[in-house]
Amino acid sequence: MYDYRVTTAVTTEPLSLAEVKEHLRLTSGTLADDTTTYQTITPADQDVVASYGLVGSSVDVLGVKAIVNLNSGTNGSGASVTAKIQESDDDVTYQDFTGGAFTVVTETNDNAIQEIEYTGYKQYIRVIATVAVDTCNFSADVVTTVGEVAEDDLLTALITVAREYCENITSRALATQTIVQYMDSFPCENDYELARPPAQSVTSVIYTDSDGDETTLTANTDYIVDDTSNIGKIVLPYSKTWPTFTPYPVNPIKTTYIAGYYSSDMIPKSIKQAMLLIIGHYYENREAVMTGAINMTKKVEYAVDSLLALYKVRWL
After folding, report:
1. Where do the DSSP E strands lie in the chain?
2. Residue 307 — φ and ψ, nearest 5°?
3. Hey, which residues does 255 pair with through a beta bridge?
């Protein structure tokens, strides 16, 4: 038998605030109120610059949807513009956004607008560009959806509530989190399972003897991590046995590991839909459910359980 607890707070939820608002049809009422435009590269005759040396300003897109526009004016003779979108968690270290490269602008296709929707999950984005041969007139901007913000705190809390509900029903970790699993003894078998799959990586396996002295096992020598099966496992290598020791009376064996889906787009759509149903129900019913709404609550619970049924972990 084992027990476990989550030791780090989830930082990135499976659903964004923008996705929830779209599901609930929450808008400010007008296009002008619902969208905001930010310049990442300001309009100008941009001089020649090599190797993506023209770096645009960052735009915070956390919790909103975003479209990035490359607005091309007139290119100089034989000149070209090569531009792409980059993304970052901290506005310091950036990486290329997959699918974020604009078509190279030449004299044959200048004076036009290119549009790419940002579908990533980072907080910050920007546009960087290379200008070759001669001066080119262009700019880049980011258009974001704003929507109603008065209840953002409530919706953010409901996203967490829905995730925790689905995690408890499925016994899965939906968002990346650190888990410490405790056991009273090593198993008789040559492996043991990790709670809340999927397992991403194992940080440590430590056992504590009756004197309170801790021993850390060595990965790939004392144990092997199975992080490819449906339920992650700690497995003994060939010719190895579990340590023999007099255990500490409380939680003598501690396995620390990272669990959860690597990214939101890897989470099954049925689980996300279940989360949206839960959020919608609690958004509309903010107090204790009265008699007239009990049947509706049962219908929501049935729909959620049906969506989650295929993803409940069947322990071996």
Report:
1. 2-6, 35-46, 49-55, 59-60, 66-75, 80-88, 95-101, 113-118, 124-132, 136-145, 177-183, 191-193, 199-208, 214-216, 224-226, 233-235, 253-259
2. -70, -35
3. 181, 205
Which residue ranges form the domains of the chain, and what is each CATH number? Answer: 31-145 (2.60.120.1110), 177-259 (no CATH)
pLDDT tens digit sequence for 211-226: 999 999 999 999 999 9
How are strands ordered across the β-sheet holding 136-145? Answer: 35-46, 136-145, 66-75, 113-118
pTM of model > 0.90: no
Instruction: Give the C-alpha separation, 62 to 263, whole Å.
Output: 15
Residue 293, pLDDT > 60, answer no
Q: Give the residue from 136, 141, 126, 137 showing the smallest Cα distance to 56.
A: 126
Structure-token pair, residue 309: 């049924």
Could you give the CA distance from residue 228 to residue 310 in angstroms, rounded to a whole number?
19
Exposed / middle / buried, residue 275 (Cβ in 10 Å: 0-12, 13-18, 19+): buried
Question: Per residue in 108-163, pLDDT tens?
Answer: 999 999 999 999 989 999 999 999 999 999 999 999 987 667 788 899 999 999 99
Q: What would the two tokens of residue 225 be?
A: 């991590």
